[in-house]
Fold LysR family transcriptional regulator.
Amino acid sequence: MSNRWDGIDEVVAVADTGTFVAAAKRLGTSTSHVSRAVARLEQGLGAQFFHRTTRAVSLTDTGRTLVDQFRRLIAERDEAIAMLDLQGEPQGHLRITCPTALGERFVAPIVRAYVQEYPKLSVDLDLSNRVVELVSEGYDLAIRTGTLPDSRLIRTQIATRGIVTCASPAYLAAHGTPETVDDLEAHDCIPATLDMWRYLVDGEVRTVRPRGRWRCSNGTAVFDAAMAGIGLCQLPEFYVSRAIAEGSLVEVLAAFRPEDDPIWAVYPQRRHLLPKVQRLIEKLRRELVPAMARG
């Protein structure tokens, strides 16, 4: 007697590839097997998953709802099997979310090399500044920065990033160089995503609300504005380190630099036991700091 859930792999493969032929190729089986497996599951659940024509296959509304559930069932099954061999090769599908700039510059190349190292592994890397719900949205791992709220999630620190206040030589020549945090009130600042800038004054954290004529939520655009002489910016060090070394930007208020922000790997409980997650965390811990130092 067949299992009630036989066919979910085939349904997900058809949904992912768009055809029964491609699904069969992905699963290493015949097209007729895929077709029969999908039909049996549809009959068993009393629901139609796909609209079928001679030219195309598309998900029904019911199919769209169920296929995400099927993905989670497959992932949980594969994770349970993987836990039997914690030293095994990373395999299966890995979903990661990471802030955009950190991901584009540093995390994506590391993850790309990781995928190339393990051919049985596939990855979905979501670069977004949105804080996703890892469990409900089906993510295995998040890369996050700064202070994190208490939650059911597990975290481990993989790196730190410095925070730097700087401006172009032209701006400083025209407006003067701030010597204290209070001097910022007399300067044009370029706010980014954070409403408050942080400093360390006499061992205590001091926050300042930056004010200026130009604001942008994108770090690269803020960097470009500072290079153009619009005002002072406060950005993660990896944005500005090369420009400071070349003299295109000048760090100010260095004596009041805040403590470095921690960079975290965050994951649901037990997920770190899976080789695909565990080994990526280890790789990020080894390679992320040197990558950021190279800029």
Summary: The CA atoms of residues 89 and 275 lie 7 Å apart. The chain is about 40% helix and 20% strand.
